[in-house]
Amino acid sequence: MAKKVLFTGTGVALITPFRKQETIDFSKLEELIDFIVEGGADYIVALGTTSEAATMTESERTALLQFIVESVNGRLPIVLGLGGNNTRAVCDTISTTNFDGISGLLSVAPYYNKPQQRGLYDHFKSIADVSPVPVLLYNVPGRTSCNISAETTLLLANDCPNIAGIKEASGNMQQIMELLRSKPANFKVISGDDALTLPMIALGASGVISVIANAYPREMSDMVRYAMKGDLKKALPLHYKLLPLINAIFEEGNPSGVKALLEIQGRITNQLRLPLCKVSKTLYNKLKELSEKNNL
Fold first, then answer.
1. Options 43, 121, 138, 226, the catalytic residue
2. Fewest CB within 10 angstroms: 95, 99, 108, 219, which?
3. Looking at the whole model, is its pTM more than 0.85?
């Protein structure tokens, strides 16, 4: 197998299957990892937002990460989601984390505190200084109420060699274009929105960290690969085939939508931990109809 280039192509924001008792279903997780690897994904993101890591204990997160590393078994790079709104605590956690088998770190912007841009700069610089692996910033103001400005991102990109890129989920195309126009050559801008992946790649982005790729790794990976080669004739049909499902899985929150879709496929039990809950019956039926209609 060809060596994967880190932070390029399709990363999969891995879900966590739970049993009805809400314990982690490691057997279904192993099957899902094999499905994603065989589907042509380029890397896996462990313990990100989509994993419901925020609802887990520290011991659960440790066990889950170890299991993912063992199950992937070197077949794909693994990026670890590790962030928070207490800079010192995040840095301490990084310092005590076992990074064997981990190729990169994805760290979300601090939430709730609503820091100034200077605070964001110092926060991420502190993380980059202690991380033993390359760092990806994660900008998702819809969840954090905090936007990492293009100016701050570019300062970090130029000042911190260990910051390799950003997962951009602001949805602000003007900001994204400014990043792509002005970034250092080796700095990756990655789509954090499945629906915007194709236009972002056309503007110069390096790929996506995808939710829909849990259910459709082959289709999403192929679309990204064609788009990055500039082959829109092949990329566009896949984009438009996936788009209705992409929009639908986010109608009632993530990962509620994709977990429903994965149950429809027969891959997991549709179980989440509070405060997240299952999608409505209306949306569940819509997802089922869309997957059947599009032969997905």
1. 138
2. 95
3. yes
- Residue 183 designated active-site: no
The answer to whether position 106 is within a domain reads: yes
Report the first-to-last Cα separation within the chain, whole angstroms. 26
Domain extent, residue 201, equals 9-231
The mean pLDDT value of the chain amounts to 96
Give strand pairing partners of 165. 136, 188
Q: Is residue 155 domain-resident?
A: yes
- What's the domain count of the chain? 1
Q: Taking Cα atoms as reference points, which of 109, 107, 192 lies closest to residue 144? A: 109
Is 167 known to be catalytic? yes
The pLDDT-based confidence of 1 (bands split at 50, 70, 90) is: very low
Q: Is residue 293 part of a domain?
A: no
Residue in 28, 167, 188, 259 annotated catalytic: 167
